[in-house]
Design brief:
Blueprint lengths: L3 H4 L16 E5 L8 E4 L3 H10 L6 E4 L4 E5 L8 H13 L6 E5 L4 H4 L1 E5 L2 E5 L5 H28 L6 E4 L2 E4 L4 E4 H4 L35 H6 L14 E6 L8 E3 L2 H5 L4 E6 L4 E5 L2 H10 L2 E3 L13 H9 L5 E6 L2 H7 L2 E9 L11 E6 L6 E5 L3 E2 L6 H5 L6 E5 L13 H13 L4 E4 L2 H6 L7 E9 L5 E10 L3 H4 L11 E8 L14 H19 L3 H8 L4 H14 L9 E10 L1 E11 L6 E11 L6 H20 L5 E2 L2 E2 L18 E6 L16 H14 L5 E2 L3 H8 L2
Parallel strand pairs: 4-5, 11-22, 17-32, 19-21, 24-25, 28-31
Antiparallel strand pairs: 1-2, 1-3, 3-4, 6-7, 7-20, 8-9, 9-10, 11-14, 12-15, 13-14, 16-25, 17-23, 18-19, 18-22, 23-24, 26-27, 27-28, 29-30
């Protein structure tokens, strides 16, 4: 269960000091340019002793048999980071990929963090489709440093100028003397150069020489997930482990008053009750006993901010806020929208709406924490998207110094932004402190996660656009009404559309509902509104929707290329089967993509059927093409689920759904017969792909529906009831 990478994070060894032995070596290479260190590893016991003496942390380890272990600093939740990031390292190191193993790195920001999220501030954060982009230069530099150490060691061993050496497939080669040595055989001769060059982009491989990046490389973690050996936090069992659950009620921030404490404590297996400001915690010997006690709790709940809030009745109030002359917070101001509207030949105004959406990650939220008997250290096993604090808030909660809290990152059974919030870890820490030294596993049931969930916000988008006498879009105003800041405003920019006058503003509301980043965040609702608005203008102006976007993208060649490619592979403009139509939408979320779908509508039931989906994507350098296509497919299917099925409704502040019987998800029979992705070659830095496909779905479907029926869908999700209402209006 324990491995040295997880349980013995180490730092501080002197630059020149290393242990001579024939067992192997770890190259301690700091990604931000710190000098490398070497430590040999003859056997696990010797290594453990040395790690205790010399705390240091490694990016890569090499043994004499040539086995290479590369550490992955990012969470793995099915998006492929366990392969993509080590692959970039191995590319620059010139490692034989067949001999590479991958393990999670220790959760130590100083060594494994990236500045890709905030310059000057390192983070280990797997969110926002920024993992590959953020770590791409980090892993290239660290891999190149490792390669340099190998080259310089071989040069010293052979007494040969380093300039005469090259590397390939875990070998250092000297062609002049027809000699070569494997990385494994080089281990006994590894030594540190007197100085290490400050490697930069010019020292890295030319992309045309890539042997691994851009190739079809199987993902490293898939075999263990298939055979069941992959460990998720929910799989973990520790000796003497006890179980914790919380009753949080259904009204966020309501205060509980327990009225039958003695009765609960007398129940079989119950060990302790732990009060929270918003919940009652139960710790028991088994999960079944904990859940039974939870079910028997008698609690009086206070009122809270959300009391009286009804989600489906709030839109008229939001409309009044949008009607108000009082301006909100300006997110984008370009040109003068007001003047453009005054001079316009025609003005369009449309409201778009979207309901709350639940993350629905398949693995229930859970964590295991053990606080030592002396209360001076703690271990955490969790599937987390990490965060600004790699110790996940545990040190302060249990009263242990951060360096004495060891986080063992596990595979995540789905994240989608929910596991970048570590409330469940904090709850477990509070229970674990009470139960020390017993390890505590906290589990949220599905009902817990739905009824006390964190949701993509409900919002209203008021769009106003105007055209000049020539039919050009001269102004575009986007007013977002809702709670959550960037949770509702992201994706409202139109950087790739040449519209001279633009305004995006946010008008804040708050109802006491728990909110969180949901895959693609605000891009889903906002791109739906923008792309639908463009098609409504195109229809009114008698312009083909693709032609309209061609015109708007004239100054954005990369965006335009995705539009042209999507139109090509989908046969845009060619006849479709009777009863079907195609719709288009463009999205920029790190990478750029244009999606086109083909749909039909059952006018009796209101069911929309998506038959085919085509995507053209520019993601910069693509590290794993097959995985990118898989991400596009997954993003489209998740987008379809949210657009056609998923809806959280709230009455009197309480969520009405409780599990998958009343929170509907897309089913197998609803999946398109084909999803085709065309990747546009690029030499630009890699961009995220996890959140590009999802927000293009709503606009593409709504635009296909408009083409097919002449009717407009403006409220997400497009449930059969809403579709019939629109058709029959």
């Amino acid at each position: 269960m324990k491995n040295k990478a997880q349980t013995d994070p180490v730092e501080g060894m002197s630059r020149r000091k290393f242990l001579k032995s024939s067992g192997g070596v770890a190259l301690f290479i700091g990604a931000s340019g710190m000098l490398p260190h070497l430590i040999s590893c003859k056997d696990s016991n010797a290594l453990k002793k040395q790690l205790q003496k010399h705390p240091i942390t490694a990016w890569v380890q090499i043994t004499e048999d040539g086995e290479i272990t590369i550490y992955n600093p990012a969470a793995e939740m099915g998006q492929g980071s366990m392969t993509s990031l080590p692959l970039v390292f191995a590319e620059e190191m010139d490692a034989d990929w067949s001999k590479v193993k991958v393990e999670f790195s220790p959760q130590e920001t100083d060594i494994y963090g990236s500045e890709g999220w905030a310059p000057g501030s390192k983070l280990m954060f797997t969110v926002g489709s920024r993992t590959t982009k953020s770590y791409y230069p980090v892993m290239r530099k660290a891999g190149a440093q490792a390669r340099y150490v190998l080259l310089s060691s071989a040069a010293a061993h052979w007494n040969t100028p380093i300039e005469e050496l090259r590397t390939e497939d875990s070998f250092v080669i000297h062609e002049n003397s027809n000699r070569k040595i494997s990385y494994g055989d080089l281990v006994p001769y590894l030594s540190m150069p007197e100085t290490l060059p400050d490697l930069s982009e010019s020292d890295f491989k030319d992309q045309k020489d890539f042997r691994l990046v851009g190739r079809e490389i199987p993902r490293t973690e898939i075999p263990s997930k298939v055979d069941g050996s992959a460990q998720f936090a929910i799989d973990l069992r520790l000796p003497q482990m006890v179980y914790g659950v919380l009753e949080r009620g259904k009204l966020n921030a309501a205060t509980p008053t327990l009225t039958n404490e003695d009765e609960i404590l007398a129940m079989e297996g119950v060990l302790k009750l732990v009060p929270f400001d918003y919940a009652i915690g139960v710790v028991a010997k088994t999960l079944e006993e904990a859940l039974a006690a939870k079910k028997s709790l008698q609690i009086d709940w206070s009122e809270a901010q959300a009391s009286g809030f009804n989600s489906q009745d709030i839109y008229p109030e939001y409309k009044q806020i949008a009607d108000s002359r009082k301006k909100g917070d300006a997110i984008v101001e370009l040109g003068d929208v007001g003047q453009a509207m005054k001079k316009a030949a025609k003005v369009y105004e449309v409201d778009f709406k979207n309901d709350y959406v639940y993350h629905a990650q398949m693995e229930p939220l859970n964590a295991v924490i053990q606080v030592a008997e002396d209360k001076k250290s703690a271990d955490v096993w969790v599937g987390s998207q990490q965060g600004p604090d790699t110790k996940l808030g545990v040190p302060d909660l249990v009263g242990v110094p951060p360096e004495q809290v060891n986080v063992h990152l596990q595979y995540l059974g789905g994240g989608f932004g929910r596991r970048s919030m570590n409330d469940f870890v904090n709850e477990c820490a509070i229970l674990a402190k009470e139960m020390a030294p017993l390890p505590v596993k906290l589990i949220w049931t599905r009902e817990d996660d739905v009824s006390y969930g964190t949701f993509r916000p409900l919002s209203l988008q008021r769009l106003k656009a105007c055209t000049d006498a020539q039919g050009n879009i001269s102004g575009f105003s986007h007013c977002v009404v809702g709670d959550g800041g960037r949770l509702v405003t992201s994706g409202a920019r139109n950087d790739h559309y040449d519209i001279p006058n633009q305004l995006v503003e946010w008008r804040e509301t708050s109802h006491g509902i728990r909110l969180k980043h949901w895959r693609s965040v605000g891009h889903g609702p906002n791109k739906f509104a923008i792309e639908s608005m463009l098609d409504e203008i195109a229809l009114d102006q008698s312009i083909d929707p693709v032609d309209l976007r061609r015109k708007l993208m004239a100054k954005s060649p990369r965006a335009l290329a995705t539009l042209e490619k999507a139109a090509e592979i989908s046969g845009w403009g060619s006849p479709v089967a009777e009863g079907r139509a195609k719709g288009v939408a463009f999205v920029e979320h790190g990478s750029m993509g244009t999606g086109i779908c083909e749909i039909s509508v059952d006018r009796n039931t209101g069911n929309i059927k998506v038959h085919k989906f085509w995507i053209a994507l520019d993601a910069g350098v693509v590290v794993q093409p097959d995985n990118v296509k898989a991400q596009m497919e997954g993003g489209i299917i998740m987008g379809m689920s949210s657009v056609l099925k998923e809806q959280i409704t709230i009455v009197d502040g309480r969520v009405q759904q409780s599990n998958f019987h009343d929170y509907n998800l897309l089913r197998f029979q609803d999946v398109p017969e084909s999803i085709e992705t065309a990747i546009i070659p690029s030499t630009e830095i890699p961009e995220g792909v996890g959140e590009t496909a999802t927000p293009m779905v709503a606009g593409a479907i709504a635009n296909a529906f408009l083409k097919l029926t002449g009717k407009r869908l403006r409220h997400l999700p497009f449930t059969p009831e809403r579709v019939l209402e629109v058709l029959n209006a």
